[in-house]
Design goal:
A: mainly alpha, Serine Threonine Protein Phosphatase 5, Tetratricopeptide repeat, 6 helices, B: Rossmann fold, two-stranded antiparallel sheet
Chain lengths: ~110, ~230
């Protein structure tokens, strides 16, 4: 009885300060983002694309939504590769999902047109 | 037996209170008044200002700042796109802007606030097991130029503990696939921990269920000292 009680208390202690479930899940995005920031080569770019795909397609956050900035930064990588049409699609998705991005993203869309 | 249970409960409660007691005596609405009055939603990350002797420190923080702020319910301007534009507009040196009017950033980026990060110190111990970091975060309004949120942390990070959520298999897969070195992974984790610890105190943004509900929660100390993880 004493042991059961003590074990229960330890469990309560361990979970007492735990943070609640996150709005979004990120897989290993930060490591890949850092690797891209540092190297910006083909390998790090491809890995970051994979990271974005994972965040978009396997999102387990409580909002069940793609996190802010992901579509737009995906577009940035596409622009670096010259894939303008796909980039434009992604930028428009960012505006649809997050209207507060409009000022900045429209600035980027204009730059693409020029 | 009854006495044992009562004693255990008292000790447990004391431990629980002390374990979670990192708060100041101020509510969030007092400590971060401007956040509640201005209600910012859109955050621009300025490239970190690195005053430490470790040239790599800037990238570790730059790559990891968006996640905790987004997880707090804010819209963070896409970090790579904004970095490219800041470079293009010759605005990549954040030191020039930390005390300057920020209204241009509202016009160009639609940002309500700009986040300045100053890495004051990044020192590795001789055997590399611990890293001591002193870091300051300043969130400034692009409308009023007021500081809405700021914290300075002295953080001792135990770099010998693996905190990667992906687990060993994930790390090995990354290593094989992209030659990410273990030191980089470790220091990315360090930056993530520093950011997460600091922004845990940020009032919830509009995408968070606690938005406008946490004003009476207790705020953490502006200057804090912590051992992580």
């Amino acid at each position: 009885m004493k042991h059961v009680f003590t074990i229960s208390i330890v469990i309560i202690l361990l979970t007492g300060c735990a943070t609640p479930t996150s709005l979004y899940t990120w897989s290993n995005y930060s490591t890949l983002a850092h690797n891209y920031l540092k190297n910006s080569d083909e390998v790090s770019t491809t890995k970051l694309f994979d990271g974005y795909d994972e965040v978009i397609n396997n999102q387990k956050g409580t909002r069940s939504a793609v996190p802010p900035g992901i579509y737009a930064d995906y577009a940035f990588l596409l622009l670096e590769r010259g894939e303008v049409e796909r980039a434009r699609e992604m930028l428009n998705k960012e505006i649809t999902l997050y209207p507060e991005s409009k000022v900045f993203i429209e600035h980027i869309l204009k730059m693409i047109e020029e | 037996m009854k006495q044992y249970i009562i004693n255990t409960i008292i000790i447990t409660l004391a431990l629980l209170i002390s374990a979670c007691s990192t708060s100041s005596k101020l509510t969030k609405s007092t400590a971060y008044k401007g956040v509640y009055t201005e209600k910012p939603t859109t955050v621009l990350l300025m490239p970190p200002i690195n005053k430490s002797t470790n040239v790599e420190a800037k990238d570790y923080f730059h790559a990891t700042l968006n996640v905790p702020i987004v997880n707090s319910g804010y819209y963070v301007i896409p970090p790579f796109l904004s970095m490219a534009i800041l470079k293009q507009e010759s605005a990549y040196d954040s030191e020039l802007f930390v005390d300057a009017p920020l209204n241009t950033f509202r016009e160009v980026f639609g940002a309500d606030v700009a986040l300045f990060t100053i890495i004051h110190k990044w020192d590795k111990s001789a055997i590399g097991a611990t890293v001591t970091v002193k870091i300051e975060y300043i969130l400034k309004s692009t409308t009023t130029n007021e500081v809405l949120f700021s914290r300075i942390g002295d953080i001792i990070y135990n770099a010998s503990v693996d905190t990667n959520i992906g687990g060993l298999a994930g790390i090995l897969a990354d290593l094989a696939a992209s030659a990410i070195n273990t030191a980089a992974t470790k220091y990315v984790d360090l930056a993530k921990s520093c950011n997460a610890h600091t922004f845990r105190d940020l009032p919830a943004g509009k995408y968070h269920p606690n938005y406008e509900k946490d004003s009476e929660h207790m705020a953490g100390h502006k200057n804090f000292r912590v051992r992580l993880p």
